[in-house]
UniProtKB/TrEMBL annotation:
Protein name: NudC domain-containing protein 1
Pfam (any one): CS
Keywords: Cytoplasm, Nucleus
Keyword Nucleus: yes
Subcellular location: Cytoplasm; Nucleus
Gene Ontology cellular component terms for the protein in this record: cytoplasm; nucleus
Keyword Nucleus: yes
Domain CS: 273-361
Organism lineage string: Eukaryota, Metazoa, Chordata, Craniata, Vertebrata
PROSITE patterns in the record: CS
Domain of life: Eukaryota
Length: 583
Protein backbone atom coordinates (compact mmCIF):
# COMPACT_ATOMS: atom_id res chain seq x y z
CA UNK A 1 0.00 0.00 0.00
CA UNK A 2 1.44 3.38 -1.06
CA UNK A 3 1.72 6.01 1.66
CA UNK A 4 1.36 9.74 0.95
CA UNK A 5 4.64 11.65 1.10
CA UNK A 6 4.86 14.08 4.02
CA UNK A 7 6.21 17.33 2.55
CA UNK A 8 7.04 20.79 3.82
CA UNK A 9 6.91 24.24 2.25
CA UNK A 10 10.38 25.67 1.61
CA UNK A 11 10.61 29.36 2.40
CA UNK A 12 12.99 31.43 0.24
CA UNK A 13 15.00 33.48 2.72
CA UNK A 14 15.93 36.23 0.21
CA UNK A 15 12.20 37.05 -0.07
CA UNK A 16 11.95 37.80 3.67
CA UNK A 17 12.79 41.18 5.20
CA UNK A 18 13.81 40.80 8.88
CA UNK A 19 14.34 44.59 9.14
CA UNK A 20 10.86 45.55 7.99
CA UNK A 21 9.68 48.45 10.18
CA UNK A 22 5.93 48.42 9.52
CA UNK A 23 3.44 50.30 7.37
CA UNK A 24 3.25 54.09 7.37
CA UNK A 25 -0.26 55.52 7.00
CA UNK A 26 -0.44 57.62 3.86
CA UNK A 27 -3.11 60.30 3.48
CA UNK A 28 -2.65 60.55 -0.28
CA UNK A 29 -6.14 60.47 -1.83
CA UNK A 30 -7.08 57.43 -3.90
CA UNK A 31 -9.14 58.11 -7.03
CA UNK A 32 -12.50 56.34 -6.54
CA UNK A 33 -15.19 55.96 -9.20
CA UNK A 34 -18.78 54.83 -8.60
CA UNK A 35 -21.18 53.16 -11.05
CA UNK A 36 -24.85 52.70 -10.28
CA UNK A 37 -26.21 49.32 -11.39
CA UNK A 38 -29.35 48.98 -13.57
CA UNK A 39 -30.55 46.04 -11.46
CA UNK A 40 -29.47 44.82 -8.03
CA UNK A 41 -26.96 42.00 -7.62
CA UNK A 42 -28.60 38.55 -7.39
CA UNK A 43 -27.70 38.01 -3.74
CA UNK A 44 -29.05 34.81 -2.14
CA UNK A 45 -29.31 35.04 1.64
CA UNK A 46 -28.87 31.99 3.86
CA UNK A 47 -32.07 30.09 4.65
CA UNK A 48 -33.11 28.95 8.13
CA UNK A 49 -31.86 25.42 7.40
CA UNK A 50 -28.39 26.75 6.40
CA UNK A 51 -27.28 27.51 9.93
CA UNK A 52 -23.80 25.97 10.22
CA UNK A 53 -20.41 27.65 10.03
CA UNK A 54 -19.74 25.72 6.81
CA UNK A 55 -22.82 27.26 5.16
CA UNK A 56 -21.57 30.70 6.19
CA UNK A 57 -18.06 30.02 4.80
CA UNK A 58 -19.30 28.64 1.47
CA UNK A 59 -22.40 30.73 0.73
CA UNK A 60 -22.71 33.53 3.31
CA UNK A 61 -19.20 34.88 2.50
CA UNK A 62 -19.48 34.22 -1.24
CA UNK A 63 -17.70 36.69 -3.54
CA UNK A 64 -20.34 37.84 -6.06
CA UNK A 65 -17.78 39.69 -8.21
CA UNK A 66 -15.79 37.56 -10.68
CA UNK A 67 -12.53 38.69 -12.28
CA UNK A 68 -11.57 37.43 -15.73
CA UNK A 69 -7.90 36.58 -15.15
CA UNK A 70 -7.38 36.08 -18.92
CA UNK A 71 -8.21 39.76 -19.57
CA UNK A 72 -7.03 42.32 -17.03
CA UNK A 73 -9.54 44.76 -15.53
CA UNK A 74 -12.61 42.88 -16.73
CA UNK A 75 -15.15 41.92 -14.03
CA UNK A 76 -18.53 40.16 -14.08
CA UNK A 77 -21.54 39.76 -11.79
CA UNK A 78 -25.06 38.29 -12.05
CA UNK A 79 -28.05 40.58 -11.42
CA UNK A 80 -31.61 39.93 -10.25
CA UNK A 81 -32.83 39.64 -13.84
CA UNK A 82 -30.57 36.63 -14.46
CA UNK A 83 -28.21 38.68 -16.64
CA UNK A 84 -24.43 38.23 -16.57
CA UNK A 85 -23.10 41.77 -16.62
CA UNK A 86 -19.57 42.76 -17.59
CA UNK A 87 -17.50 45.87 -17.00
CA UNK A 88 -14.20 46.17 -18.85
CA UNK A 89 -12.14 49.24 -17.95
CA UNK A 90 -10.03 50.90 -20.58
CA UNK A 91 -9.94 54.42 -19.15
CA UNK A 92 -11.04 55.33 -15.61
CA UNK A 93 -12.34 58.75 -16.58
CA UNK A 94 -14.54 57.32 -19.37
CA UNK A 95 -16.33 54.45 -17.67
CA UNK A 96 -19.26 52.93 -19.52
CA UNK A 97 -22.24 51.12 -18.00
CA UNK A 98 -21.92 47.37 -17.32
CA UNK A 99 -23.13 45.48 -20.42
CA UNK A 100 -25.13 42.27 -20.65
CA UNK A 101 -23.16 39.38 -22.18
CA UNK A 102 -25.49 36.48 -21.39
CA UNK A 103 -28.89 35.77 -19.84
CA UNK A 104 -29.57 32.62 -17.81
CA UNK A 105 -32.40 30.57 -19.35
CA UNK A 106 -33.85 29.69 -15.92
CA UNK A 107 -36.26 31.86 -13.96
CA UNK A 108 -34.23 32.08 -10.76
CA UNK A 109 -37.05 33.51 -8.61
CA UNK A 110 -39.13 30.34 -9.15
CA UNK A 111 -36.62 28.21 -7.18
CA UNK A 112 -36.86 28.37 -3.38
CA UNK A 113 -33.82 26.20 -2.58
CA UNK A 114 -31.34 27.74 -4.98
CA UNK A 115 -27.84 28.91 -4.18
CA UNK A 116 -26.06 31.94 -5.63
CA UNK A 117 -25.19 31.77 -9.33
CA UNK A 118 -21.46 31.08 -9.80
CA UNK A 119 -18.98 31.11 -12.67
CA UNK A 120 -15.35 30.38 -13.46
CA UNK A 121 -13.29 31.59 -16.41
CA UNK A 122 -11.93 28.28 -17.67
CA UNK A 123 -9.88 29.67 -20.58
CA UNK A 124 -9.75 32.70 -22.86
CA UNK A 125 -12.74 31.29 -24.80
CA UNK A 126 -14.62 29.13 -22.25
CA UNK A 127 -16.66 29.81 -19.12
CA UNK A 128 -18.27 27.31 -16.72
CA UNK A 129 -21.49 28.58 -15.21
CA UNK A 130 -24.04 27.48 -12.59
CA UNK A 131 -27.44 29.10 -12.10
CA UNK A 132 -27.57 27.91 -8.46
CA UNK A 133 -30.39 25.40 -9.06
CA UNK A 134 -28.17 22.37 -9.79
CA UNK A 135 -27.67 22.92 -13.54
CA UNK A 136 -24.19 23.21 -15.07
CA UNK A 137 -23.54 25.20 -18.26
CA UNK A 138 -20.48 25.22 -20.51
CA UNK A 139 -20.35 28.49 -22.42
CA UNK A 140 -18.24 29.10 -25.51
CA UNK A 141 -17.53 32.84 -25.47
CA UNK A 142 -15.19 33.45 -28.39
CA UNK A 143 -12.24 35.75 -27.65
CA UNK A 144 -13.66 37.80 -24.77
CA UNK A 145 -11.23 40.67 -25.22
CA UNK A 146 -12.43 41.19 -28.81
CA UNK A 147 -15.94 42.65 -29.12
CA UNK A 148 -16.15 41.53 -32.77
CA UNK A 149 -15.62 37.81 -32.00
CA UNK A 150 -17.15 37.62 -28.51
CA UNK A 151 -20.43 35.72 -28.43
CA UNK A 152 -21.65 33.66 -25.46
CA UNK A 153 -23.23 30.34 -26.56
CA UNK A 154 -24.36 27.33 -24.51
CA UNK A 155 -22.32 24.31 -25.64
CA UNK A 156 -23.46 21.96 -22.86
CA UNK A 157 -26.00 22.06 -20.04
CA UNK A 158 -27.20 19.33 -17.71
CA UNK A 159 -28.95 18.91 -14.37
CA UNK A 160 -26.45 17.47 -11.87
CA UNK A 161 -28.60 16.97 -8.78
CA UNK A 162 -28.59 19.20 -5.71
CA UNK A 163 -27.59 22.89 -6.10
CA UNK A 164 -23.85 23.63 -6.09
CA UNK A 165 -21.32 26.40 -6.62
CA UNK A 166 -18.37 26.20 -9.03
CA UNK A 167 -14.99 26.69 -7.38
CA UNK A 168 -12.54 25.86 -10.19
CA UNK A 169 -12.31 24.60 -13.79
CA UNK A 170 -9.70 23.89 -16.47
CA UNK A 171 -9.73 23.36 -20.25
CA UNK A 172 -7.70 20.53 -21.85
CA UNK A 173 -6.92 19.75 -25.48
CA UNK A 174 -5.29 16.35 -26.08
CA UNK A 175 -5.04 14.75 -29.53
CA UNK A 176 -7.84 16.96 -30.91
CA UNK A 177 -10.10 15.90 -28.05
CA UNK A 178 -11.37 18.83 -26.01
CA UNK A 179 -12.39 18.35 -22.38
CA UNK A 180 -13.31 20.61 -19.49
CA UNK A 181 -12.88 19.56 -15.85
CA UNK A 182 -14.71 21.46 -13.14
CA UNK A 183 -14.96 21.29 -9.37
CA UNK A 184 -18.40 21.68 -7.75
CA UNK A 185 -19.10 22.25 -4.05
CA UNK A 186 -22.22 21.20 -2.14
CA UNK A 187 -23.15 21.00 1.54
CA UNK A 188 -25.35 17.94 2.04
CA UNK A 189 -27.52 16.75 4.91
CA UNK A 190 -26.14 13.77 6.84
CA UNK A 191 -28.97 12.08 8.73
CA UNK A 192 -26.74 9.74 10.77
CA UNK A 193 -24.55 12.53 12.16
CA UNK A 194 -26.04 12.97 15.64
CA UNK A 195 -23.06 14.50 17.47
CA UNK A 196 -21.82 16.80 14.68
CA UNK A 197 -23.48 19.56 12.65
CA UNK A 198 -25.65 17.13 10.68
CA UNK A 199 -24.00 18.14 7.36
CA UNK A 200 -21.01 17.12 5.28
CA UNK A 201 -19.17 18.86 2.42
CA UNK A 202 -19.16 17.26 -1.03
CA UNK A 203 -16.66 18.13 -3.78
CA UNK A 204 -17.54 16.73 -7.20
CA UNK A 205 -14.88 16.57 -9.92
CA UNK A 206 -16.75 16.46 -13.23
CA UNK A 207 -15.04 15.92 -16.61
CA UNK A 208 -16.92 16.82 -19.81
CA UNK A 209 -15.56 15.67 -23.19
CA UNK A 210 -16.15 16.31 -26.86
CA UNK A 211 -14.93 13.68 -29.31
CA UNK A 212 -13.41 15.12 -32.49
CA UNK A 213 -15.74 13.12 -34.75
CA UNK A 214 -18.84 14.62 -33.14
CA UNK A 215 -18.11 18.31 -33.36
CA UNK A 216 -21.13 19.63 -31.47
CA UNK A 217 -21.89 17.28 -28.64
CA UNK A 218 -20.24 17.46 -25.22
CA UNK A 219 -20.98 14.78 -22.63
CA UNK A 220 -19.95 13.90 -19.07
CA UNK A 221 -17.31 11.15 -19.08
CA UNK A 222 -16.23 11.12 -15.43
CA UNK A 223 -17.68 12.06 -12.04
CA UNK A 224 -15.58 11.65 -8.89
CA UNK A 225 -16.80 12.72 -5.46
CA UNK A 226 -14.88 13.65 -2.31
CA UNK A 227 -16.44 13.96 1.14
CA UNK A 228 -15.17 16.04 4.03
CA UNK A 229 -16.38 17.80 7.16
CA UNK A 230 -15.23 21.36 6.41
CA UNK A 231 -15.48 23.72 3.45
CA UNK A 232 -12.04 23.78 1.77
CA UNK A 233 -10.12 27.03 1.98
CA UNK A 234 -8.61 26.24 -1.43
CA UNK A 235 -9.35 23.57 -4.05
CA UNK A 236 -8.03 23.49 -7.62
CA UNK A 237 -7.48 21.01 -10.46
CA UNK A 238 -3.98 20.78 -11.89
CA UNK A 239 -3.55 22.34 -15.38
CA UNK A 240 -2.87 18.91 -16.95
CA UNK A 241 -5.93 17.39 -15.24
CA UNK A 242 -3.82 14.72 -13.49
CA UNK A 243 -4.48 15.76 -9.92
CA UNK A 244 -6.24 17.93 -7.40
CA UNK A 245 -4.96 20.08 -4.52
CA UNK A 246 -7.00 20.95 -1.44
CA UNK A 247 -6.26 23.11 1.61
CA UNK A 248 -8.75 22.31 4.36
CA UNK A 249 -9.19 22.19 8.11
CA UNK A 250 -10.56 18.62 7.96
CA UNK A 251 -9.41 16.01 5.46
CA UNK A 252 -11.24 14.88 2.32
CA UNK A 253 -11.50 11.37 0.89
CA UNK A 254 -12.82 10.04 -2.41
CA UNK A 255 -16.00 7.97 -2.27
CA UNK A 256 -17.46 5.74 -4.96
CA UNK A 257 -19.96 7.40 -7.28
CA UNK A 258 -23.40 6.30 -6.19
CA UNK A 259 -22.13 4.86 -2.92
CA UNK A 260 -24.63 5.48 -0.16
CA UNK A 261 -23.16 7.46 2.70
CA UNK A 262 -25.27 5.42 5.16
CA UNK A 263 -23.69 2.18 3.90
CA UNK A 264 -20.17 3.52 4.37
CA UNK A 265 -21.17 4.75 7.83
CA UNK A 266 -22.49 1.29 8.73
CA UNK A 267 -19.19 -0.26 7.59
CA UNK A 268 -17.23 2.17 9.75
CA UNK A 269 -19.46 1.38 12.75
CA UNK A 270 -19.03 -2.38 12.30
CA UNK A 271 -15.25 -1.93 12.29
CA UNK A 272 -15.41 0.11 15.49
CA UNK A 273 -17.68 -2.42 17.26
CA UNK A 274 -15.34 -5.37 16.46
CA UNK A 275 -14.12 -7.01 19.68
CA UNK A 276 -10.37 -7.08 20.47
CA UNK A 277 -8.72 -10.48 19.87
CA UNK A 278 -7.10 -10.43 23.30
CA UNK A 279 -6.60 -8.20 26.36
CA UNK A 280 -3.29 -7.63 28.13
CA UNK A 281 -2.00 -5.99 31.30
CA UNK A 282 1.42 -5.47 32.80
CA UNK A 283 3.11 -4.87 36.12
CA UNK A 284 6.78 -4.18 36.87
CA UNK A 285 7.74 -7.82 36.19
CA UNK A 286 4.79 -9.71 34.62
CA UNK A 287 2.61 -9.39 31.50
CA UNK A 288 -0.82 -11.05 31.64
CA UNK A 289 -2.62 -11.91 28.38
CA UNK A 290 -6.29 -12.96 28.50
CA UNK A 291 -7.91 -14.74 25.51
CA UNK A 292 -11.57 -15.77 25.28
CA UNK A 293 -11.63 -19.44 24.22
CA UNK A 294 -13.99 -20.93 21.62
CA UNK A 295 -16.73 -23.25 22.91
CA UNK A 296 -15.72 -26.89 23.61
CA UNK A 297 -12.04 -25.92 23.65
CA UNK A 298 -10.05 -28.29 25.87
CA UNK A 299 -6.53 -28.33 27.21
CA UNK A 300 -5.48 -30.65 24.36
CA UNK A 301 -6.63 -28.04 21.77
CA UNK A 302 -4.19 -25.43 23.12
CA UNK A 303 -0.54 -25.29 22.03
CA UNK A 304 1.66 -22.43 23.25
CA UNK A 305 5.36 -22.01 22.49
CA UNK A 306 7.47 -19.57 24.53
CA UNK A 307 10.80 -18.33 23.14
CA UNK A 308 13.00 -15.52 24.60
CA UNK A 309 11.73 -12.94 22.04
CA UNK A 310 8.80 -14.75 20.43
CA UNK A 311 5.40 -16.24 21.27
CA UNK A 312 3.15 -18.63 19.31
CA UNK A 313 -0.43 -19.47 20.37
CA UNK A 314 -2.40 -22.16 18.46
CA UNK A 315 -6.08 -22.93 19.25
CA UNK A 316 -7.78 -25.97 17.71
CA UNK A 317 -5.10 -26.23 15.04
CA UNK A 318 -5.52 -22.55 14.02
CA UNK A 319 -2.71 -20.03 14.57
CA UNK A 320 -4.23 -17.45 16.93
CA UNK A 321 -1.35 -15.17 17.91
CA UNK A 322 2.24 -15.26 16.72
CA UNK A 323 5.03 -12.73 16.49
CA UNK A 324 8.07 -11.06 17.97
CA UNK A 325 7.60 -9.65 21.46
CA UNK A 326 8.43 -6.03 22.26
CA UNK A 327 11.18 -7.12 24.63
CA UNK A 328 12.70 -10.34 26.03
CA UNK A 329 10.94 -12.69 28.45
CA UNK A 330 12.05 -15.49 30.76
CA UNK A 331 10.55 -18.22 28.55
CA UNK A 332 11.24 -21.01 31.04
CA UNK A 333 9.27 -19.31 33.85
CA UNK A 334 6.32 -18.16 31.64
CA UNK A 335 3.10 -20.18 32.10
CA UNK A 336 -0.55 -20.46 31.01
CA UNK A 337 -3.79 -21.64 32.63
CA UNK A 338 -7.48 -22.11 31.68
CA UNK A 339 -9.74 -20.01 33.95
CA UNK A 340 -13.26 -20.92 35.12
CA UNK A 341 -14.91 -18.38 32.76
CA UNK A 342 -13.58 -20.33 29.74
CA UNK A 343 -10.70 -17.93 29.13
CA UNK A 344 -7.01 -18.58 28.63
CA UNK A 345 -4.60 -16.61 30.85
CA UNK A 346 -0.96 -16.41 29.77
CA UNK A 347 1.69 -15.06 32.17
CA UNK A 348 4.90 -13.75 30.55
CA UNK A 349 7.78 -12.98 32.92
CA UNK A 350 9.74 -9.86 31.88
CA UNK A 351 13.50 -10.27 31.46
CA UNK A 352 14.00 -6.53 32.11
CA UNK A 353 12.01 -5.72 35.25
CA UNK A 354 10.52 -2.22 35.37
CA UNK A 355 10.46 -1.74 31.58
CA UNK A 356 7.04 -0.54 30.35
CA UNK A 357 5.95 -2.23 27.12
CA UNK A 358 4.01 0.04 24.70
CA UNK A 359 2.85 -3.07 22.76
CA UNK A 360 2.80 -6.82 23.31
CA UNK A 361 3.55 -8.31 19.87
CA UNK A 362 5.37 -5.91 17.53
CA UNK A 363 2.98 -4.51 14.91
CA UNK A 364 -0.08 -6.41 16.22
CA UNK A 365 -3.03 -4.03 16.77
CA UNK A 366 -5.69 -6.68 17.48
CA UNK A 367 -5.28 -6.59 21.26
CA UNK A 368 -6.40 -4.04 23.85
CA UNK A 369 -4.18 -2.87 26.68
CA UNK A 370 -5.89 -2.49 30.08
CA UNK A 371 -4.13 -0.14 32.50
CA UNK A 372 -5.04 -0.49 36.18
CA UNK A 373 -5.55 2.47 38.53
CA UNK A 374 -2.46 1.73 40.63
CA UNK A 375 -0.27 1.87 37.54
CA UNK A 376 -1.83 5.19 36.42
CA UNK A 377 -1.14 6.67 39.87
CA UNK A 378 2.49 5.53 39.70
CA UNK A 379 3.01 7.11 36.28
CA UNK A 380 1.38 10.36 37.44
CA UNK A 381 3.73 10.47 40.45
CA UNK A 382 6.78 10.00 38.20
CA UNK A 383 5.65 12.95 36.02
CA UNK A 384 4.67 15.23 38.90
CA UNK A 385 7.89 17.28 38.69
CA UNK A 386 6.99 18.35 35.13
CA UNK A 387 3.61 19.85 36.05
CA UNK A 388 2.19 22.47 38.39
CA UNK A 389 -1.18 23.77 39.50
CA UNK A 390 0.07 27.33 38.90
CA UNK A 391 0.50 28.84 35.41
CA UNK A 392 4.03 30.13 36.15
CA UNK A 393 5.17 28.85 39.57
CA UNK A 394 8.73 30.18 39.28
CA UNK A 395 8.84 33.40 37.20
CA UNK A 396 12.47 34.09 38.17
CA UNK A 397 13.64 30.84 36.56
CA UNK A 398 16.14 31.21 33.68
CA UNK A 399 13.71 29.97 31.02
CA UNK A 400 10.14 30.46 32.30
CA UNK A 401 7.33 28.62 30.49
CA UNK A 402 5.23 30.45 27.89
CA UNK A 403 2.52 32.54 29.48
CA UNK A 404 -0.64 32.56 27.35
CA UNK A 405 -1.66 35.85 28.98
CA UNK A 406 1.22 37.57 27.19
CA UNK A 407 -0.24 36.71 23.78
CA UNK A 408 -2.12 39.44 21.99
CA UNK A 409 -5.66 38.72 20.84
CA UNK A 410 -4.67 38.75 17.17
CA UNK A 411 -2.06 36.01 17.82
CA UNK A 412 -4.71 33.49 18.84
CA UNK A 413 -5.72 31.25 15.96
CA UNK A 414 -8.81 29.26 16.87
CA UNK A 415 -8.78 26.61 14.15
CA UNK A 416 -6.75 23.50 14.64
CA UNK A 417 -4.07 22.67 12.12
CA UNK A 418 -5.08 22.71 8.44
CA UNK A 419 -3.45 20.51 5.81
CA UNK A 420 -2.57 20.79 2.14
CA UNK A 421 -3.22 17.55 0.23
CA UNK A 422 -2.54 16.54 -3.35
CA UNK A 423 -4.77 13.78 -4.83
CA UNK A 424 -3.86 11.71 -7.88
CA UNK A 425 -6.55 11.88 -10.59
CA UNK A 426 -6.29 8.25 -11.69
CA UNK A 427 -5.77 6.36 -8.40
CA UNK A 428 -7.83 8.89 -6.36
CA UNK A 429 -5.28 8.46 -3.54
CA UNK A 430 -3.46 11.14 -1.55
CA UNK A 431 0.11 11.44 -2.86
CA UNK A 432 1.45 14.47 -0.93
CA UNK A 433 0.48 15.96 2.43
CA UNK A 434 1.71 19.18 4.03
CA UNK A 435 0.74 19.83 7.64
CA UNK A 436 0.27 23.60 7.72
CA UNK A 437 0.36 23.79 11.52
CA UNK A 438 -0.17 27.39 12.56
CA UNK A 439 0.30 28.69 8.99
CA UNK A 440 -3.17 30.17 8.69
CA UNK A 441 -4.73 30.29 5.21
CA UNK A 442 -5.44 33.89 4.14
CA UNK A 443 -6.56 34.05 0.49
CA UNK A 444 -5.93 32.81 -3.06
CA UNK A 445 -5.05 34.73 -6.22
CA UNK A 446 -4.50 33.88 -9.89
CA UNK A 447 -1.08 35.20 -10.89
CA UNK A 448 -0.90 33.30 -14.20
CA UNK A 449 -4.23 31.95 -15.55
CA UNK A 450 -2.39 29.03 -17.22
CA UNK A 451 -1.12 27.89 -13.80
CA UNK A 452 -2.99 26.85 -10.67
CA UNK A 453 -4.20 29.65 -8.38
CA UNK A 454 -1.67 30.74 -5.75
CA UNK A 455 -2.53 30.62 -2.06
CA UNK A 456 -1.32 32.92 0.70
CA UNK A 457 -0.45 31.61 4.18
CA UNK A 458 0.53 33.35 7.38
CA UNK A 459 4.11 32.52 8.46
CA UNK A 460 4.83 34.10 11.83
CA UNK A 461 3.94 37.78 11.21
CA UNK A 462 4.36 37.72 7.42
CA UNK A 463 2.03 36.57 4.66
CA UNK A 464 3.74 34.32 2.09
CA UNK A 465 2.40 33.62 -1.39
CA UNK A 466 2.83 30.08 -2.79
CA UNK A 467 2.56 28.98 -6.44
CA UNK A 468 1.77 25.26 -6.95
CA UNK A 469 3.75 23.51 -9.72
CA UNK A 470 2.11 20.13 -10.35
CA UNK A 471 4.84 19.04 -12.81
CA UNK A 472 7.63 19.30 -10.22
CA UNK A 473 7.14 16.36 -7.83
CA UNK A 474 10.19 17.23 -5.68
CA UNK A 475 9.35 20.89 -5.10
CA UNK A 476 5.64 21.21 -5.77
CA UNK A 477 5.03 24.57 -4.06
CA UNK A 478 7.18 27.62 -4.74
CA UNK A 479 7.43 30.64 -2.47
CA UNK A 480 7.06 33.55 -4.93
CA UNK A 481 6.30 36.66 -2.85
CA UNK A 482 6.10 38.02 0.69
CA UNK A 483 3.78 40.64 2.16
CA UNK A 484 5.74 41.85 5.19
CA UNK A 485 3.94 41.78 8.57
CA UNK A 486 0.60 41.33 6.78
CA UNK A 487 -0.18 38.12 8.67
CA UNK A 488 -0.06 40.10 11.90
CA UNK A 489 -1.83 43.19 10.55
CA UNK A 490 -4.78 41.33 9.04
CA UNK A 491 -5.37 39.42 12.28
CA UNK A 492 -6.33 42.69 14.00
CA UNK A 493 -9.04 43.41 11.40
CA UNK A 494 -11.91 41.63 13.09
CA UNK A 495 -14.56 42.77 10.56
CA UNK A 496 -12.68 41.74 7.41
CA UNK A 497 -14.74 40.02 4.73
CA UNK A 498 -12.58 39.68 1.60
CA UNK A 499 -8.82 39.55 1.10
CA UNK A 500 -6.92 39.90 -2.19
CA UNK A 501 -3.64 41.00 -3.77
CA UNK A 502 -2.49 42.27 -7.15
CA UNK A 503 -1.27 39.55 -9.55
CA UNK A 504 2.09 41.38 -9.69
CA UNK A 505 2.27 41.42 -5.84
CA UNK A 506 2.55 45.23 -5.76
CA UNK A 507 -0.06 45.51 -3.02
CA UNK A 508 -2.48 43.50 -0.87
CA UNK A 509 -5.93 44.68 0.12
CA UNK A 510 -8.75 43.69 2.41
CA UNK A 511 -12.24 45.04 2.88
CA UNK A 512 -14.61 45.00 5.81
CA UNK A 513 -18.26 44.03 5.64
CA UNK A 514 -19.20 47.69 5.31
CA UNK A 515 -17.57 50.62 3.56
CA UNK A 516 -13.83 50.47 4.45
CA UNK A 517 -11.02 49.13 2.25
CA UNK A 518 -7.41 48.81 3.49
CA UNK A 519 -4.49 48.77 1.04
CA UNK A 520 -0.95 47.63 1.98
CA UNK A 521 1.76 48.45 -0.54
CA UNK A 522 5.14 46.80 -0.96
CA UNK A 523 8.12 48.90 0.23
CA UNK A 524 9.23 51.52 -2.33
CA UNK A 525 12.29 53.84 -2.41
CA UNK A 526 11.94 57.21 -0.68
CA UNK A 527 12.19 60.46 -2.62
CA UNK A 528 13.44 62.26 0.50
CA UNK A 529 16.03 61.28 3.13
CA UNK A 530 14.55 59.55 6.19
CA UNK A 531 16.48 58.42 9.30
CA UNK A 532 15.73 55.80 11.95
CA UNK A 533 16.63 57.69 15.14
CA UNK A 534 16.90 54.58 17.32
CA UNK A 535 19.43 52.84 15.09
CA UNK A 536 20.94 55.99 13.61
CA UNK A 537 20.66 54.76 10.03
CA UNK A 538 19.09 56.03 6.85
CA UNK A 539 15.83 54.35 5.78
CA UNK A 540 15.89 53.57 2.07
CA UNK A 541 12.38 52.24 1.60
CA UNK A 542 8.95 52.71 3.15
CA UNK A 543 5.77 50.60 2.92
CA UNK A 544 2.55 52.60 2.78
CA UNK A 545 -0.88 51.78 4.12
CA UNK A 546 -3.92 53.55 2.66
CA UNK A 547 -7.59 53.50 3.65
CA UNK A 548 -10.52 54.11 1.31
CA UNK A 549 -14.02 54.74 2.65
CA UNK A 550 -16.84 54.06 0.19
CA UNK A 551 -19.85 56.36 0.04
CA UNK A 552 -22.45 53.67 0.64
CA UNK A 553 -24.25 52.01 3.54
CA UNK A 554 -24.89 48.79 1.56
CA UNK A 555 -22.89 45.68 2.54
CA UNK A 556 -19.93 44.72 0.33
CA UNK A 557 -20.79 41.63 -1.76
CA UNK A 558 -17.75 41.32 -4.04
CA UNK A 559 -14.08 42.29 -4.08
CA UNK A 560 -11.40 41.84 -6.78
CA UNK A 561 -7.87 43.19 -7.25
CA UNK A 562 -5.95 43.76 -10.49
CA UNK A 563 -2.50 45.31 -10.96
CA UNK A 564 -3.96 48.80 -11.29
CA UNK A 565 -7.39 48.77 -9.64
CA UNK A 566 -9.61 47.44 -6.90
CA UNK A 567 -13.21 46.58 -7.78
CA UNK A 568 -15.76 46.62 -4.95
CA UNK A 569 -19.35 45.43 -5.49
CA UNK A 570 -22.32 46.33 -3.30
CA UNK A 571 -26.00 45.55 -3.86
CA UNK A 572 -26.61 48.57 -6.08
CA UNK A 573 -23.16 49.96 -6.95
CA UNK A 574 -19.79 49.02 -8.39
CA UNK A 575 -16.81 51.02 -7.10
CA UNK A 576 -13.39 51.32 -8.77
CA UNK A 577 -10.38 52.39 -6.72
CA UNK A 578 -7.31 53.36 -8.71
CA UNK A 579 -4.37 51.93 -6.76
CA UNK A 580 -1.47 51.98 -9.24
CA UNK A 581 -0.85 54.04 -12.33
CA UNK A 582 0.07 52.18 -15.50
CA UNK A 583 3.80 51.76 -15.98
Amino acid sequence: MEVAANCSLRVKRPLLDPRFEGYKLSLEPLPCYQLELDAAVAEVKLRDDQYTLEHMHAFGMYNYLHCDSWYQDSVYYVDNLGRIMNLTVMLDTALGKPREVFRLPTDLIAYDNRLCASMHFTSSTWVTLSDGTGRLYLIGTGERGNSASEKWEIMFNEELGNPFIIIHSISLLKAEEHSIATLLLRIEKEELDIKGSGFYVSLEWVTINKKSKDKKKYEITKRNILHGKSVPHYAAIEPNGNGLMIVSYKSFTFVQVGQNLEESKDEDMSEKIKEPLYYWQQTEDVLTVTISLPEDCTKEDIQIQFLPDHVNVVLKGQRFLEGNLYSSIDHESSTWIIKENNSLEISLIKKNEGLTWPELVVGDKRGEFIRDSAQCAAIAERLMHLTSDELNPNPDKGKPPCNAQELEECDIFFEESSSLCRFDGSTLKTTHVVNLGSNQYLFSVIVDPKEMPCFCLRHDVDALLWQPHSGNQDDMWEHIATFNALGYVQASKRDKKFFACAPNYSYAALCECLRRVFIYRQPTPMSTVLYNRKEGRQVGQVAKQQVASLETSDPILGFQATNERLFVLTTKNLFLIKVNTEN
